[in-house]
Amino acid sequence: MRRRNAWILHAVLIAAVTIIAFPILFAVVKATQTRVDVLSPSLIPGTQFFENVRNVFLNANLLVFMRNSFIAAIAVTVGKTTLSLMAGMALVYFRFPFKRVIFGLILLTLMIPIQVLVVPLFDIVSLQPPESLEAWWRWLSRPDRILFQPAEYGFGWANTYAALIVPFLASATGTFLFRQHFMAIPSSLADAARIDGATPWQFLRRILVPMSWNTIGALAVIEFVYVWNQYLWPKVIIRREELQVVQVGLNLIIGTGEGVEWGYVMAGATLSLVPPLLVFMLLQEQFMRGFALSDSK
Amino acid sequence: MKDNAVFTSRVLPWLLLLPSFVILLVFIYYPALQAWVLSTYRSNLFLNTRQFVGLDNFRLMFTGPLADKYIQVVIQTFVYGALVVGLGLSIAMVVATLASQNVRGARIYRLLLIWPFALSPAVAGTIFLFMFNPDIGSVNQVLESLFGIKPRWLDTPILAFSLVVLASVWKNLGYNMVFYLAALQNVPKELGEAAAIDGAGPIQRFFRITVPMLSPMTFFLLFTNLTFAFFESYGLIDIVTSGGPVGPPPADGAGLTTTMIYQVTLDGFGGSGNTGLAAALGNVILVFTILITLLQFRYGSRRVQYGDN
Hints:
heterodimer, A: mainly alpha, 16 helices, B: mainly alpha, two-stranded antiparallel sheet, 12 helices, 2 strands, 68% helix
């Protein structure tokens, strides 16, 4: 009886593992096949992998797309983690007026997904900046125009890396995670540091950062994956192919016409999976612990 | 308020908060305000014209000739969301529970289940588009040789909708699995053993012990999966179906796989080029999102089982 149960369990688990992995394995195998084989249902690995990769890198711009994704993902990950750490530190280790209000205002943005704001955000990021400081000041000094009319000026960042990076540098999730983590650190540590005469900077460098690697790792995974996988915003704000990111780039490789080179596309899909997967695998321990998931509380 | 506030500088906390705050103000709060401002204008992206129309865009969406289309899109979004969340979470919960049994090779199973965590919607879409291509896709080649059928996955409304749901559920499985497996490590084994001694079968134990113990995690995943269904699925849908195909009446107003966020970009950046209408629909989604969040906090957290804390 027990043995039969164990067999059923194994069968179900193997089925689940297969279903989850199959489409990706399918893509990997197809990435190795020739132009003819790729259009057949055959799942026998071919020998064309490097040929396909070379083609998709050089002829279909994948290298450029991946470079752009790397720049955006790393810049946002580093920037966001740093800014959230700073904000979390301010919220836990300092006393100042309106602290709760400020925390509330940061947290409130969790309810406002950036995708909903795609139309106004597009205006603000892409509209040209004012031609002079004076014009800018004239706009800023008219609350009726800045608040109640469509934005007149923006940053002029369409088709730049800045458009992919700057709007995403602040994070309610990150601030919240760091705040929770800092509040769980015994206050005696901070007291001891202060009595020893440590400056906030020394406290941050010597105590907070070394004690926060799990939270930092967890955030790094979330942010890297989030930015790497972004699609809607880059598609809208980046119209020049040499600045496009890999997710939208894949669709550019498919294109619209006939005769899609599916071997290249599958090679591209496979390669674009590797960086976020690597980040996840490398930081998996920190990721789990950062959420206090695998530790018993 | 319990805090560890030990430093007394008056300027430093503001300096630490300033960068985050400026970014949120400029790129979240100001656009959120602008979304309401823009929604009171009728605009034409191509003629570059703009005219104040008050609440006309909202009226257009819910009454008049365009109403059928927008109401259809809203319903589709919710049906799609419910299916993705319902199927995705229940499958992940069952499989994660099985994989955390005391079975030989459990560690390997777990590893094999979580690795697609970082899978992107666009890549999922790309792979499914190829697999289910009606003419050259492997799925149809297999179906044809076995049963002699070649379903038009991408042009048949109900099939296209099912395909998008299937791809979305699959895309989220790895993600859901990571969190459920982690949460299951915290469920004390003694609970299940005690119940087994009392004569509870495996199915009873699953519903009476595992499901309630997992409820905080389910609560969290409900959020992230809904966010996926509402917003991040855009890439998957754009690649697989581009929002189409159009169904038979009464579902003939918009493509059957057009979700609200897809309609926002259609209105804002293509087709009609009416950014005002797009902003208005964006605001409707925003209100829905806030309502769902509040409802979850109001009712969701009450039934949540928090274990021993």
